[in-house]
């Protein structure tokens, strides 16, 4: 399967990129002397892509297992190299599950399946970064 996107310059340092879904996203970067931003940072968006990919896996797996959770979120942090071209050499993914009676074993299994088998973005990151994952349970 091939994905194709088109990214168009919108002036200044802002770009708009489409997606095979038909949706678009604005991207830009920090501009010295201003706090104004129009879009998302391309590098940080990579971390969002990692979270989105793995999160979709985890939730769909939990649905198949008929596991009920109250809420779920992921915190992803990446450390960039000092030299150009800067890229993430270390990434940490924290999975947070919330619920009154969490099935921790099944939640852990869902994360493991995503990390080790299903998440293609996770696999891409592993090609250039050390990826560390942690699971946290929060009982409501």
UniProtKB/TrEMBL annotation:
Pfam families: OsmC
Coiled coil: none
Recorded superkingdom: Bacteria
Protein name as it appears in the record: Putative redox protein
Organism: Winogradskyella sediminis
């Amino acid at each position: 399967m091939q994905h194709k996107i088109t990214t168009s310059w919108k002036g200044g340092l802002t770009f708009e990129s489409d997606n095979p879904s038909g949706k678009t996203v604005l991207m830009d970067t920090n501009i010295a002397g201003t706090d104004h931003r129009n879009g998302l940072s391309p590098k940080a968006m990579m971390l969002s892509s990692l979270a989105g990919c793995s999160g979709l896996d985890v939730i769909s797996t939990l649905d198949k297992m008929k596991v009920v959770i109250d809420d779920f979120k992921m915190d992803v942090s990446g450390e960039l190299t000092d030299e150009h071209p800067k890229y993430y050499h270390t990434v940490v993914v924290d999975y947070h599950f919330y619920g009154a009676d969490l099935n921790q074993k099944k939640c852990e299994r869902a994360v493991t399946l995503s990390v080790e088998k299903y998440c293609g973005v996770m696999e891409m990151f592993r090609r250039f970064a050390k990826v560390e994952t942690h699971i946290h349970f929060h009982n409501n």
